[in-house]
Amino acid sequence: MQKTILLLSVIFFSNFILAQTESNSAASWLNKNCIPIKYVKAENGFDDLNPLKDLIGDARIVSLGECTHGSSEVFSMKHRMLEYLVKEKGFTIFSIEANMPEAYALNEYIIDGKGDPRKLMAGMYFWTWYTQEVLDMIEWMKKYNETATKKIMFTGFDMQFSDVSIKILREYLIVNNNNLLSILNDYDSLYKKKQMKKNESTDNFKKLKADAQILLDSLNAHKPMAYNKDFNWAFQNARILWQYAANHFSNPARDESMAENVKWILDENPSAKIVLWAHNGHIRKDKDGFEYKSMGEYLDKMYGKQMIAIGFATAEGTYTAVQRDGKKFIGLDSTNTLLTKEGSYESFFNIAETADLILDLRNISKGQEGTGWIQEKRLFRSIGAVAMNKFQFAKINLISHFDMIIFIRKTSASKCFSIKKLAGN
């Protein structure tokens, strides 16, 4: 019995020493290779971000992720990254995970100075972006545009609603091709009917998709010979009608559609560089750990090294998300707690001397001392719009998912303007 206890003690202390050695080695490597972040808020200069100049290089797309849809400091740091990329690297397009034409409406404010920014933000439908942090970023964009030669454009790449696309397409058809109005009206009628019902039949979505395809084919048959901005915008909104219907049949359809919409934005602005704002799960470059391909995977195939995917991580704090009771959604809550997980990527980032950091993942060689932990599949936080009280982590290969990581040790819930309202209102 004593021998057994002694053996178990030896094993325990051996494992403890090995774990401590790995932890010390990882901390040493992190401290030497990370870029410490001094500020997470914008308009604090770029002294700490100067190393990004070479790391970003000539990339045309920089994707900024997030580990939750409701972390204040993550949103603020994304704002700061946008400021850096605009001022130091010449980026002129911002695009967010929000419905495309509704997001474009923000240009009325940031470029033309027209309208109420909060109303325009609310017009994007999602509580996730209806926050003080996003408003602060929009106000900064407007202020920047007042004196900038090359103005920032606000865009979106999502396609989960058809409302505004129907309106835009109707306005175009009335002037240019009123023969298609009956098809659009059929789509509109069925779309409104679908919006009123929670469990709409697949047949109705098939009809929506068929109507959208007729619109696309007919518009394409009458495509102007020369470049025509109005036609291209109308055609793109017809594509959103099709994408909306297609999304009913296949969950991955949304990510593929979002990638196509990003490509459309870049094709319309061939000399521009774009900053994307979305969840980590949409910007990731690898399917590993997930059921379907992400927007980032599609874009990686299209643009390769022209795109840099920057994931975000945090170790502790609170976040805003929708709470539910069983299957019933009961409203937004800003007191949701981020769980800690021993052995996760976050637990290793947390041992660095600096609380907030940027880490380039692209040139980590096998066998490099202190990097064993980051070259293994580990748990990594991933929370969407719905609060996850237990299952906050997914097992992934961090290096294959992202080019860089921004880690912010402690975060708080986003300052959401909808927090007192029921989710979805």
Structural description of this entry:
The protein is α/β, with parallel strands linked by helices and 425 residues long. The protein has 2 domains: 34-160 and 273-411, 3-Layer(aba) Sandwich (EreA/ChaN-like  fold), CATH 3.40.1660; 163-246, no CATH class. It has helices spanning 2-33, 52-56, 72-89, 100-104, 107-110, 117-122, 132-145, 163-176, 181-196, 202-221, 229-246, 252-268, 280-283, 295-303, 345-349, 398-401, and strands at residues 35-36, 61-64, 93-99, 153-158, 274-277, 307-325, 328-337, 356-360, 378-381, 393-396, 404-411. Strands 1, 2, 3, 4, 5, 6, 7, 8 and 11 form a 9-stranded mixed beta sheet that branches. The protein has 16 helices and 11 strands.
Protein traits:
disordered C terminus, 425 residues, EreA/ChaN-like  fold, two-stranded antiparallel sheet, 2 domains, alpha/beta
Radius of gyration: 24 Å
Report the major sheet. Answer: 9 strands, mixed
What would CATH call the architecture of the largest domain?
3-Layer(aba) Sandwich
Q: What name does CATH use for the topology of the largest domain? A: EreA/ChaN-like  fold
Unreliable residue runs: 7-19, 421-425
CATH superfamily of the largest domain: EreA-like (biosynthetic domain)
What is the straight-line distance between the termini? 65 Å
Shape: globular
Q: What is the number of domains?
A: 2
Approximately how much beta-strand content do the residues carry? 15-25%
Class by alpha and beta content = alpha/beta
Q: How do the SSEs run, as a string of H and E?
A: HEHEHEHHHHEHHHHHEHHEEHEEEHE
Output the number of helix runs: 16
Mean pLDDT: 91
Record field, number of beta strands: 11
**Can you identify the CATH class of the largest domain?**
Alpha Beta
Percent helix range: 40-55%
